[in-house]
Amino acid sequence: MAGYLLRRVIGTIPVILLITSLVFLLIHAAPGDPADLLLSDQATSQDIAEARHRWGLDQPFYVQYSRFIVNVLKGDFGTSFRYSDPVITVIGERLPATVELAIVSLLIAIALGLPLGVWAGAKPNSWADNLGSFFGFFGISMPNFWFGIMLILVVAGYLNWLPSSGRSTYGIARGSETGFYIVASLLAGNFLAAWDGVRHIILPAVALGTNMMGIIMRVTRSAVLEVMHEDFVRTARAKGVAESTVLWRHVLRNALVPVITVAGLELGTLLSGSIIVETVFAWPGSGSLLISAIESRDYPLITGTVIIYTLAFVAINFMIDILYGFVDPRIRFGK
Amino acid sequence: MAVDVAVADAARPVRARRRFAIRPLLKPKIVLGGAIVLTLIVAGALAPWLAPFDPNAQNLDLALKPPQWLLGPHILGTDAVGRDILARLFYGARVSLVIAVMVVLISGVIGVTLGAISGYFAGIVDFLIQKLVEVVWAFPPLLLAIAIMAFLGQGLRNLILALVMQRWISYCRVARGQALSLRTREFVDAARALGASNTRIIVRHIVPNLFQSAVVIGTFAMASAIISEAALSFLGLGVPPEIPTWGSMLADGRTYISTSWWLALFPGLCIFFTVLGINLLGDGLRDLLDPRLKRSGTGMG
Prior knowledge:
Helices cover about 75% and strands about 0% of the residues of chain A. Chain A contains 14 helices and no strands. The model of chain A has no long low-confidence stretch (mean pLDDT about 85). Chain B is mainly α and about 300 residues long. Helix content of chain B is about 70%, strand content about 0%. Chain B is elongated. The termini of chain B are far apart. Chains A and B meet through helix 1, helix 6, helix 7, helix 9 and helix 11 of A and helix 5, helix 6, helix 9, helix 10 and helix 11 of B.
């Protein structure tokens, strides 16, 4: 197991270096001098010359490149123009909101997608299958930004059931809004604030999770369909195991490997989906931060967010790899 | 008379064969999906004739008129500067379609070529190409496109580059896997024994065998390209604002959501049904052409 882990860790190092290189190339492919990009519009030519020297832009390409890589590895992405704070601090403050949203979306997606998929896969071509497949297609075809707007229009607007934006109601929030708001409120015993947080997170989480729900449903269905024909399922049935036990214990467990794989791969979709959904719902996370950074041409912040999101995605995929090494030991020893 | 019979006899097998080829296509998914896609193509191609108004003609006297359905000239209403929604939807279909088709074709050519080379040569070439795949794939989908648009700026060329950047990968992965097994097949050995060059073997013997999978991946790539294009336009990172697209209409509509629901409803419906249609078509084609892909192609990315 330790050898397997070590091999995977070493395998990701070149990928991280290459990702950083790609972002570096992208910054340099941008029209104009990086100093112009990395400085605010008010900078004088003297500022620019000074910045060029400070950032080493007057150095040869390979020096700039290695300096960029070293800075990234140190977590130094420079200072945000707009917030005048280190980029890493600005992102760090907004990241918990994104993680909270992503986790709740993922839970919603699993809670709906998995049973629908098992239900549909266990009885192919039944009405349950058709209904499940309908939800599956609905999920994968629904653009989350439009679904979000429609949820705001109907649920928040006409029905007035849930709030349409933000993380908390003004006056209810105690202290900082950043951080893991719901969990923190619960731990502090402030149930009113926690309930307020739950009410705020439902619509964005549904908008963000629908896509994932569709994907999980479809993968679960086809995995269950495949496993249903295996010998061990026939054996379990022949032993007289109850059908529901066969389904939920024997079939689902073996169908879980492709589901985890695909769910893991699609976490990236969830991450990038959060950028849009956060913008729609004015959710104060790192996704909406990226979009406002693009609008205000805050290039250090854009670079930092892109790299941190990508590294997070690499880390998630890494953990998924480890996770299905546990779920299916054949993978661990196979390769 | 005798001639007629002979003609009829000669025609029969042909007709029978043709029926055999069409019947598998008559699955509900393919028919429904195909019909939606066909509607999109017609709407996009005939936009100048179908659109009731100039999509960019502004008239502030007519701003934010609700849908008049069949009772007035502005069937689906007007936007904040009095432009006709229906006309803009027709032109938006054209933009979405052109961008998606170009993205799918360019990604397909790049992905299949690199995949075929990677699988056929194996070894160091394969290693390098797969490293590239791994790195580009390491970016969360859409994030790389957002980054490209943010750094390189708006415009059609950058948009297509941004959308192609990750979409060639699914072609490449599948093509590589198939090329790896094709390279050891007898017909490839035979071609090599006859003195065919590597290029010839790849172009004439490997690539044609990758075509079916590429078609299936292409339909899903098209659906995701349409959603991504709409998402980028929605974020203001797509084509320049003067070109009507569904995504930018949706972004405009968001501003007026509390008062004018029609601005956001119709472009969103267009995106949803288009993507649904393409996904249905892709699903049907996959079941038909390449059931092995069932697990790998989830349709999004």
